[in-house]
């Protein structure tokens, strides 16, 4: 038998898929040109590939960076995960025309989710940008430091 507190607690833990309007609103608040940002679906990857990926808990930028370096992914992709109440900056990987998130999937019970795609990097460009970013993988703040190169998605400097 559930009481009201159990119901509220369970409801809060439910994964939320935001509406496109809510996603665009949040992106605009973060100084992005929301109408220029495309939405993609992040899918579950094959278990064997996931097992070979770097999947340090809550380290999506590092994990995606390492997975592209070690050829588990073809591209390093920056954007926002849109499966919670607030969008969350995240790095994922691209293989062919599909997008994967080894960091989230490694937690178990993975469900495909919407992702606001900002940009992607090939391995060379990713490493070059990391070098100019004090050896940190490119993240959303990195994009804002180079806003003139991302005028199509960045509304104004942070």
Any chance you could write out the topology, listing elements then pairs?
Elements: H1 4-13, H2 20-29, E1 38-43, H3 47-52, H4 60-69, E2 75-81, E3 88-95, E4 98-100, H5 102-105, E5 113-121, H6 123-131, H7 140-145
Parallel strand pairs: 1-4
Antiparallel strand pairs: 1-5, 2-3, 2-5, 3-4
What does this protein structure show overall?
The protein is α+β, with helices and mostly antiparallel strands. It has one domain. The protein contains seven helices and five strands; from the N terminus they run H-H-E-H-H-E-E-E-H-E-H-H. It has a five-stranded mixed beta barrel with strand order 1-4-3-2-5. Strand 2 and strand 3 (88-95) form a beta hairpin. The longest helix has 10 residues, at 4-13. The protein is globular and about 40 Å long.
Summarize the entry for a quick read.
The chain has 7 helices and 5 strands; from the N terminus they run H-H-E-H-H-E-E-E-H-E-H-H. It has 158 residues and is of the alpha+beta class.
Please bin the fraction of helical residues: 25-40%
Mean pLDDT: 89
Number of domains: 1
* Biggest sheet details: 5 strands, mixed, barrel
Q: N- to C-terminal separation?
A: 49 Å
Run of helices and strands: HHEHHEEEHEHH
Unreliable residue runs: 1-15
Compute the number of helices.
7
Return Rg in Å. Answer: 17 Å
Spatially, the strands of the biggest sheet line up as: 1-4-3-2-5
Determine the strand fraction and express it as a percent band.
15-25%
Structural class: alpha+beta
């Amino acid at each position: 038998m559930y009481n009201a507190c159990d119901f509220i607690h369970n409801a809060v833990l439910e994964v939320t898929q935001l509406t496109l309007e809510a996603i665009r609103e949040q992106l605009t608040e973060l100084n992005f040109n929301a109408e220029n940002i495309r939405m993609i679906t992040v899918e579950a990857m094959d278990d064997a590939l996931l097992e070979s990926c770097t999947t340090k808990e809550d380290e999506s930028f590092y994990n995606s960076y390492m997975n592209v370096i070690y050829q588990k992914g073809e591209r390093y992709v920056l954007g926002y995960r849109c499966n919670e109440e607030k969008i969350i900056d995240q790095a994922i990987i691209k293989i062919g025309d599909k997008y994967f998130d080894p960091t989230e999937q490694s937690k178990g019970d993975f469900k495909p989710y919407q992702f606001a795609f900002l940009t992607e990097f090939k391995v060379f460009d990713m490493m070059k940008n990391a070098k100019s970013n004090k050896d940190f993988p490119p993240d959303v703040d990195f994009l804002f430091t180079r806003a003139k190169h991302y005028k199509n998605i960045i509304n104004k400097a942070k």
